[in-house]
């Protein structure tokens, strides 16, 4: 079990705010993968990130900073979910969109 798996099972959640997707993400990532990524992200399961980045997200969660998760889609490959520090918006994007 990875750190991000344990984090998601602790029962923590946070508001996603307005959800936006880049055009590239909409046209590339299957909707079910986007939905699964958003659910995991909101449950503090940061996906495929390392221990240091997971720790940074935990600190960001406690201190009101930006949150970043990485997930994978069989069709689109890696995609990111980023929630702004004020929790007003969450964006789904591909790394090339950043």
What does the model show?
The structure is a single chain. The chain is α+β, with helices and mostly antiparallel strands and 98 residues long. It has one domain. Helix content is 39%, strand content 23%. The chain is built from 4 helices and 4 strands. The protein has helices spanning 3-9, 23-28, 31-42, 51-63; strands spanning 18-21, 67-73, 77-83, 89-93. A 4-stranded mixed sheet has the order 1-4-3-2. It is globular and about 35 Å long. The protein starts with a helix and ends in a 5-residue tail after the last strand.
Could you give the topology of this structure?
Blueprint: H1 3-9, E1 18-21, H2 23-28, H3 31-42, H4 51-63, E2 67-73, E3 77-83, E4 89-93
Parallel strand pairs: 1-4
Antiparallel strand pairs: 2-3, 3-4
Entry keywords:
98 residues, alpha+beta, globular, disordered N terminus
The helix content, as a percent range, equals 25-40%
- Overall structural domain count: 1
Question: What amount of the residues lies in strands?
Answer: 15-25%
**Which secondary-structure class do the elements indicate?**
alpha+beta
Number of E-state strands: 4
Counting H and I runs of at least 4 residues, what is the number of helices?
4
**SSE sequence, one letter per element:** HEHHHEEE
Rg: 12 Å
Which regions are unreliable across 5 or more consecutive residues at pLDDT < 50? 1-9
Q: How many strands, what sense, and barrel or not for the largest sheet?
A: 4 strands, mixed
Report the span from N to C terminus: 29 Å
Strand order of the largest sheet: 1-4-3-2
Question: What is the overall silhouette?
Answer: globular
The residue-averaged pLDDT reads: 91
């Amino acid at each position: 079990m990875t750190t991000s798996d344990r984090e998601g099972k602790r029962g923590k959640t946070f508001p996603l705010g307005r959800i936006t997707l880049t055009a590239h993400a909409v046209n590339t990532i299957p909707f079910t993968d986007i939905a699964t990524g958003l659910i995991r992200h909101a449950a503090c399961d940061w996906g495929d990130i390392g221990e240091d980045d997971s720790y940074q997200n935990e600190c960001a969660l406690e201190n009101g900073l930006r949150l970043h998760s990485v997930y994978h889609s069989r069709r689109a490959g890696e995609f990111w979910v980023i929630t702004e520090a004020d929790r007003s918006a969450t964006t789904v994007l591909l790394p090339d969109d950043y």
